[in-house]
Amino acid sequence: MIIKRNFNLIKIFQYIAPDVSIALVSASTVYLLFATGTHIITLPFAVSAILGSALAIFIAFRNNTSYSRWWEARTLWSGILSSSRIFSRQIIANADNAVYSGKATKEKADAYKREMIYRQIAFAHSLRLYLRNQAIEPALFSLLNDEDKANLAGKSNKPNFLLQRQGIRIKEGIREEILGTFDNISLEPVLSAFNNFQSSAERIKGTPLLRQYDYYTRLFLRIFIILLPFSLIGEFSKLGITPVAVPVSLIISFVFATLGKVGEVNEDPFENKITDVPMTYICNTIERDLKEMLEEKELPEKVLPEKGFIY
């Protein structure tokens, strides 16, 4: 996720170089032909105005849709963070209550709390890696017990497997009287929320923005960039400032190309790019907060922004 307020124009140009190059070639060619007296057709400015208006509508729709996808993805991960804290609080409070009431020993309750909360941390990390199509990190296995480690490797949907294990261990915790008989009433909705968060994230990941909007936006942009100099050259020649048509054409093309690229780079929030939802940062926050709830002193280093980006 980009958090810096100022952008490097060179970096921006790298994103829109093809469109700006087309604009430069088109504007320069039209001007040279006009300046050398070669016969060239000029277009009424209304042609570019109408095409520009249609293009603006397409770009606005695409940008709004892209931002909606990005914001939904960010909201889902905010829910995962919040629900992880709620789940851990409930596990800790319920297990401690079993100790105070004499139904479980402190050692048994502490081991259960650690197992459940570490597995919850592993769920967040595994979902991050799953959405980014990345291999499981070795550090993730350190959060799991031997049984989970052995079974996790063979699962295609590792986050879903970890949630299933959480559900099973809640039932076992009730039978072992580490959790109360009715504790599942409050814990099950939280687990269901995690399933819903994951499914919604998978929907965003697996359903791209309608390709026709992407295709026609790019097509109309290229047509607009090519035709724009033909409209500007006639208008500026009437004012006696024909050369100005070239930089003005480039500036207008730059603006439209940049606006179009903004929507394009934001439409996929789980691709491990600088425009992504900051899943690494959120997972790091989950791990730090949940380990702190266990009163652990050794916490992972906090993920900090790097050169204006947070991952």
Overview of this protein structure:
α2 packs antiparallel against α8 and α8 (211-238) runs antiparallel to α9 (245-266). The protein is mostly helical and 311 residues long. The protein has helices at residues 9-35, 45-100, 106-131, 138-141, 146-152, 158-175, 184-206, 211-238, 245-266, 279-293. Helix content is 73%, strand content 0%. It has one domain. The chain is elongated, with a radius of gyration of 28 Å. The mean pLDDT is 90.
Major beta-sheet overview: none
SS strand fraction: under 5%
The succession of helices and strands, N to C, reads HHHHHHHHHH
Overall structural domain count? 1
Structural class: mainly alpha
Radius of gyration (CA) equals: 28 Å
Task: Tell me the span between the first and last alpha carbons.
Answer: 6 Å
- Please tell me the overall pLDDT: 90
Shape estimate: elongated
Determine the fraction of residues in helical runs and give it as a percent range. over 70%
| Residue runs with pLDDT of under 50 for 5 or more positions | none
Number of helices: 10
- Tell me the total number of β-strands: 0
Concise summary:
The protein is mainly α and 311 residues long.
Q: What brief labels describe this structure?
A:
311 residues; mainly alpha; 73% helix
Task: Produce the secondary structure layout.
Blueprint: H1 9-35, H2 45-100, H3 106-131, H4 138-141, H5 146-152, H6 158-175, H7 184-206, H8 211-238, H9 245-266, H10 279-293
